Amino acid sequence: MRSLGFVLLIMVFAVVSAGCAGLASQANSSAPVAPSLMTQPTNQTVTAGQTASFSVAATGTAPLSYQWQKNTVAIGGATSSSYTTPAATSSDNGAQFTVLVSNTAGSATSSAATLTVNAATVVPSITSQPGSQTVTAGQTASFSVAATGTAPLSYQWQKNSVAISGAISSTYTSPATTSSDSGTQFTVLVSNSVGSVTSSPATLTVTSSAAFPAWVSPRLVRVGQTDAPGTTSSITLSSARGETVDTQVIVQGPAGGLTNVNVSASSLTGPGGVTIPASNLTLYREHYLTVTGTASYGGGSNPPLGSATYAEPLIPFNDPETGSSLCGAVASLKACNATITAGQNQPYWIDISVPRGVTTSPMGTYTGSISITADQGSTTIPVTLTVWNFELPMQPSELSLWTLWPPAAGNTTGTLAQALMRNKVMSWYDVAANASSDVTNLGLNRSGLDGYYYIGIQCNGSYSSLPSTGQINAAAANFPPGLPLDFYLADELNGCTGDYSAIKTMGANAHAANRSIKTMMTINATDPNLYGAIDHWVLLDSVQQWPALPFTGGGDLWSYTSCNTGFGNTPEWMVDYPPINERIQAGFLNWTQGATGILYYRSDGWTAGNTIGSWNNVDTTACGGGLGRPGDGIFLYPPGPIASTESAPGIRLKAIRDGIQDYEYAQILKNLGQVPFLNTVIQPIATNWSNWSHDPSALEGARLQLGQLLHQLAP
Q1: Which is the most buried residue in 85, 567, 702, 710, by most CB within 10 A?
Q2: Is residue 416 domain-shared with residue 555, that is, in the same domain?
Q3: Does residue 102 sit in the same domain as residue 164?
Q4: pTM of the predicted model, to two decimals?
Q5: What is the per-residue pLDDT across 44-69, written as a single tens digit (0 to 9) for each?
Q6: At what angle do helices 675-682 and 651-671 cross, to 10 degrees?
Q7: What would the DSSP string read from start to end of 32-91?
Q8: Is residue 189, in this structure, part of any structural domain at all?
Q9: Is 489 strand, coil or helix?
Q10: Nearest to 174 by CA among 153, 203, 208
Q11: For residues 505 and 45, what is the distance between their CA atoms, to the nearest angstrom?
């Protein structure tokens, strides 16, 4: 019994002991557990006007508290495990939602869920109807429409109510017409996923043969002296407000030739009788010159066209500064009263500058005409201009510097700068006294301070001047506040190290100034030793040493082209290259390659000074070794031979301007969050410096897509 009692006592002690351990274990398991997220909120995509719902699943000791946040700001009343937004608007696009889950033991924040808000689905609406056309038998007729509505929009053109096979874009060009086509009516059906609309009819009138051949050619096509007549008989263009669009009208001499040929423009009449004045249509006669072709171009994928005769300089009908006619002036070259021999072509360049302001230039279709007269007869070219519902800024987003030389005889610093700015290109430095008006009237978007201090750093570290911060402040004070200012420090110092100290000193002095003063240099590749000292890395694209993108080395990237054609793959700007070279570099290539600016070393490097010789001879050998580089350093032509107050542009400068406007389309779309769309349109034609499209139609098609989207996105 005593043994049994002892055993029982031991068992009781064991049970009691086990009970104590069990109580301790229970006490430990009841300690609060901090929240842990088992399911994160997920991204949501909705259409404007719809709500979006987010939810989360969490564990942890109850009770759990929830606080939803939008862009890190707490949302009032959003305190449950799920949250439903109010009706979403376009301003909510890209908003990030998180939730803070908490209890007495701690808290946990979810990962962010992004809300994507697509525009509300809208049925198509036609904002610009196709206009009736009159053509000469044998020519084509072009029709266009502008519409808004949720993308993508589909188009189907119809002829007398019957669908035209393959006519599925916003523009349609007919085959060569015959007299039987006269009276035909063209309409277009515009549709999307939620509806469709049919345009009003446009009537085609076909007349008998004209007194002489006259046709329209796209701006990127150089017209040869004896090219066969084209079939396009009307001008059809689309433009933003604040943009200048351009085209060419060509007249060919019939048997017996033409005398006293002149070209004039009417005003363009638009919605509600609003007009674009005839003075906004600038006319030029294209001048032919014969060149010796580019030699030893590098052997790559972009060969020159070679020695030939090309249209390049543009003779204005009116003085660009005063607006007065140059026809009555005593001059070697005149645009008016031309003589065209049998079988020879005379192209005329036409700029149409669309005024700014919704009231001044409401969106819609504008029509007018170009009249061509000669002693032997006359003809008329219809003009149809669609003005889209968006506007380009007065100051281009893309920066530029277009000469690093003092002005040539016949130019002054002021007149040289003005001739360039009329084409959206900036000179080395502007006259400070003119800067405020140039910002307002000509879109000046930067100026150098080099007119006060020429830096000129050399490979061995020598220099012309290194102004102090105080001196820089004094020079900058002459320019309007907010205008970007800069110094050009050094020119093509490739492989140098002796220049480091001077460049770093100048960078430090400029960066310590009262306002932002940038520094730049031309070079083949960025130099990490100078990161922080150089703001604009101006890189020679032809040597193909462009950095990996996105560039994170400090500062930004510009591109430049020179007489050095490198490997022969990149765009070149000599006269014997097609003008798509200038346009695609200044536009879509600079955009895809992350460049924010563009530079060229000279614009008035004339071969014979301010004389007719400089209009007729642009053969240069600036690269040495006798290698021909026609037009190198020449983008303007001297004013003396045309009796103008200002130098005249050439077709290549117009292509640069058009590229800068292409760049602006991309910049505006980026600002609207449309980079994925941009990449799908631009990357295929401007992939990199050695892989880009040489097809003008592909470039114009890309621009059209961007413009149509901007028109649709306009409020």
Answers
A1: 702
A2: yes
A3: no
A4: 0.80
A5: 999 888 999 999 999 999 999 999 99
A6: 150
A7: ----EEEE----EEEETT---EEE-EEESSSPPEEEEEETTEEPTT--SSEEE-SS--GG
A8: yes
A9: strand
A10: 203
A11: 52
- How many of the other CB atoms lie within 10 Å of CB of 2? 6
What does the alpha-carbon distance between residue 336 and residue 411 come to, in Å, rounded to a whole number? 24
Instruction: State the amino acid at position 699 in one-letter form.
Output: L
pLDDT for 135: 87
The region, left, alpha or beta by phi > 0 then psi within -120 to 50, assigned to residue 64 is beta
For residue 375, what are the contacts with CB-CB under 8 A and spacing of at least 6?
Answer: 258, 259, 260
Q: Amino acid identity of 350? A: I
**Main-chain phi, psi angles of 473, to 5 degrees:** -60, -40
Sign, CA torsion 249/255/261/265: negative
Q: Which helix (H) or strand (E) holds 265?
A: strand 258-265
User: Do the domain assignments include residue 283?
Assistant: no
Residues 168 and 40 in one domain: no
Last residue of a domain, one of 160, 185, 209: 209
Domain that holds residue 541: 399-713
- Note whether residue 374 is domain-resident: no
Report mean pLDDT in 10-residue bins for the chain, 715 residues. Answer: 36 37 45 94 92 96 96 96 94 95 95 91 91 88 91 94 95 91 96 95 89 95 97 95 98 97 98 97 98 94 97 98 94 97 98 98 96 96 96 98 96 98 98 98 98 98 98 98 98 97 98 97 98 98 97 96 95 98 98 98 96 97 81 97 98 98 98 96 98 98 96 91
Do 415 and 521 reside in the same domain of the chain? yes
Residues 678 and 642 in one domain: yes
**Per-residue confidence (pLDDT) for residue 29, from 0 to 100:** 53
For the record, the structure tokens of 174 come out as 């007919």
Q: Phi/psi at 441 (nearest 5 deg)?
A: -100, -25
Residue type, 63: P
Two tokens at 259? 């005398």
CATH number reported for the structural domain that contains residue 99 in this entry? 2.60.40.10
Asked whether 495 and 486 are in contact (CB, 8 A), the reply is no
Tell me whether residue 232 is in a domain. no
Question: Burial code of 72-107, b = ≥16 C-beta within 10 A, e = fewer?
Answer: eeeeeebeebebebeebeeebbebebbbebbbeeee
| CB-based contact 165:174 (threshold 8 Å) | no
For residue 498, give both structure tokens: 């002796």
Rounded CA gap, 406 and 426, in Å?
A: 14
- What lies within 8 Å, CB to CB, of 320 at 6+ separation is 282, 418, 419, 422, 644, 645, 646
- pLDDT digit string (tens) for 422-465? 999 999 999 999 999 999 999 999 999 999 999 999 999 999 99
Peptide bond preceding 407 in cis form (omega within 30 of 0): no
Query: In this structure, are 185 and 103 located in the same domain?
Result: no
Q: Which two tokens stand for residue 550?
A: 């996105």
Output DSSP code: residue 337.
S
The verdict on 461 and 507 lying in the same domain is: yes
Residue whose pair of structure tokens reads 């674009």 in the numeric block:
276
CA distance 676 to 681: 9
Task: Write the secondary structure of 396-440 as one string of H (helix), E (strand) and C (coil).
Answer: CCCEEECCCCCCCCCCCHHHHHHHHHCCCCCCCCCCHHHHHHHHH
Question: In the 8-state DSSP scheme, what is residue 139?
Answer: S
**Number of residues in the chain:** 715
Could you say which of 192, 209, 226 is where a domain stops? 209
Residues 599 and 503 in one domain: yes
Tokens of 524: 């083949």
